[in-house]
Amino acid sequence: MRLHPGEPAFGPWQPMSVTEAVDKAIRAWPANRLATLAVDGGSSSGKTTLGERIVAAIAGAVVVHTDDVAWWQSVFDWVDLLVEGILEPALRGEAVTYRPPAWDRRQRAGAISVPAGARLLIVEGVGAGRRELARYLDGVIWVQTELDLKLARDEARIAAGEVTREAYDSWMAEERPFQADQATWGRANLVVSGSGQSGGRDDRVLGFVPAR
Questions:
Q1: What tens digit of pLDDT does each residue of 163-192 get?
Q2: Which residue of 72, 74, 87, 212 is surrounded by the most CB atoms within 10 Å?
Q3: What is the pLDDT of residues 57-106, one digit of tens each?
Q4: What is the pLDDT of residue 169?
Q5: β-pairing verdict for 190-193 and 139-144
Q6: C-alpha to C-alpha distances, 156 to 54, 69, 104, 149, 164, nearest whole angstrom
Q7: What is 14-208's CATH number, 3.40.50.300, 3.40.50.1970, 2.60.40.420, 1.25.40.20?
């Protein structure tokens, strides 16, 4: 099983429902405020799919994608935008309608929104569980997927025209050392398999709870 350099192979995997997985990742739900959960992993590991499944399973859950925060900003220099524009006001109980600076510069429509009264905010993307965000997060999920499978998924995205080869190579040149430095898997409360094996049921995942 090939993984990112330094990433350990987790397991044995245990089948669990999506809601059970979230409860294992957030071991102490806050009583009087929004709960926050990072879903982190490598490119094409299955993070976005898992985030969508959590939103579908938990009433009041909403997802924010780091790719939207980082759009035309920087691959990984977006912590202040996420914290000041989204996390801090959301944790104060405020409704969030945020447009990162690049959205205005490049006239992107819409906004990143978190409604007041949301129960769970999922921050999804490469770097969502980075150490700089630790004090804002109630839980971290690491999505582990074999490197060969991720590379195959990336190649399919390139072939489909979702991203150019040049942009992909540039992204990976930053992602690989970033992940090796962050080692977010070591801070995860739950590791979920991103290989598409869920016991044949859409409401289940394969997870592993690291010893603490």
A1: 899 888 888 899 999 999 999 999 999 999
A2: 87
A3: 999 999 999 999 999 988 899 999 999 999 999 999 999 999 999 999 99
A4: 87
A5: parallel
A6: 25, 24, 31, 11, 11
A7: 3.40.50.300
